[in-house]
Amino acid sequence: MKTGCTATALWFSLWGSDDRFSVPHFRYLISELQETKIVDNHNWDLVVDIVQSIVEIVSCGDSQDPQLFERFMEYQVLAEFVRVLRICTDTGIQAPFLQYLSIFIQNIENYCFSNDHINNIIAHPFNFGCGDLDPYYISFLRAVSSKVNIGIISILVKVHGVRYCSFLPVTLYSAALKFSQRSERMIQAAVRAITLNLYKVSDDLVLQFLSTPPVSDYFSNLVWRLKEQCSHLDGHVHALKERFTDHGWKELLLEADKIVDEIYYLKDIISVGESCLSEAVALSLVNFLIFPILGRLLKTQQSDVSCLLPNFFCSYIYSYFSQG
Questions:
Q1: Where are the alpha helices (DSSP H) in the chain?
Q2: Structure confidence by residue, pLDDT tens digits, 191-249
Q3: Rounded to whole angstroms, how far apart are CA atoms 13 and 193?
């Protein structure tokens, strides 16, 4: 560890376990963060330790000592977090930084969405594709989405007005959709959780944004992707009919699982109970999947058309969405 880190580690060790959660120690950590003017290889581990300690203190002390959260807001610590992000381009600090922010968001009970600081973190130009940053970022978005509710929306509108370019649900949704085409299961699951959390808010302003083009194109894109997956699965079926292999069978099962996941997600959207969302999904299913499949069924006289799989999908989708 560098000299500066050693000195700070020594200072940290002077605080007992109880004192770690005291207001004076909390003030000291904040002042250390405020004095940080650059983040590089010499001090990034120290900065991470400070951020971790601040998050732990606020998360653990939020329900025990109201003064800690009051000091957190008074000293604009979220603004300091944004500043630290802006002076650091190394994913070595950005990844754990986002991890601790996710922990903070998940554990805090008080309102912490004022002054657009969370928005600024979401909109920060992270260098995605380098290292392991992407999962930490999408987990942060998921944590934020879990806290968005009708009460939060009302406060945001009352305090800041409605500016779609910086409205938290809009920023959050737009950021999540940038990952909607990713194939990693963890990222796919997070995107679905984020979108469903926002769909369930049941706020008219949010729903208007979600159901208006081009944002509403997301629903048709989902169905287009489902259609492509069905076509891909059809190809697997034909290939296995020509030549069966264990590898081909495993690939077919994987493709089928992906399709089932997509159908579950579409049904979850409809189950939210918002008519504008249900109509968008239903119209996309009918126009881009059901009608094309039925069209194929009407052309079964062509020798190269498989009617078994289209018939199966029509029956499966109908029965699935008809359930309770």
A1: 3-13, 23-34, 44-61, 66-74, 77-86, 91-107, 117-122, 133-147, 150-160, 168-177, 185-199, 204-210, 217-242, 246-271, 275-285, 291-297, 308-322
A2: 999 999 999 998 888 899 999 999 999 999 999 999 888 888 888 888 888 888 898 89
A3: 40
Cβ-contact 99, 62 below 8 angstroms: no
- What own/partner pairs with CB < 8 Å and gap ≥ 24 does 309-316 have? 309/230, 309/233, 309/234, 309/237, 310/234, 313/230, 313/289, 314/290, 316/263
Cis peptide before 214 (omega within 30 of 0): yes
Region 58-75 average pLDDT: 80
- Measured over the CA atoms of residue 70, residue 76, residue 82 and residue 85, the dihedral's sign is negative
Question: Residues 194, 142: contact at Cβ < 8 Å?
Answer: yes
Q: What is the pLDDT of residue 90?
A: 74
Give this prediction's pTM.
0.86
How far is it, in rounded angstroms, from Cα 10 to Cα 5? Answer: 8
Location of structure tokens 């880190």: 5
Ranges of each domain in the chain: 1-112, 113-210, 216-324
Query: What are the pLDDT digits (tens) for 22-65?
Result: 888 899 999 999 999 988 888 888 999 999 999 988 887 666 67
DSSP state at residue 75: T
Q: What is the pLDDT of residues 145-177, one digit of tens each?
A: 999 998 888 887 766 555 655 688 899 999 999
- The values of phi and psi at residue 306, to 5°, are -90, 120
Residue 180 CA to residue 107 CA, distance in Å, equals 27
DSSP labels for 156-173? HHHHH---TTT-HHHHHH
CB 141, CB 176: distance < 8 Å? yes
For the record, the structure tokens of 115 come out as 């002054």
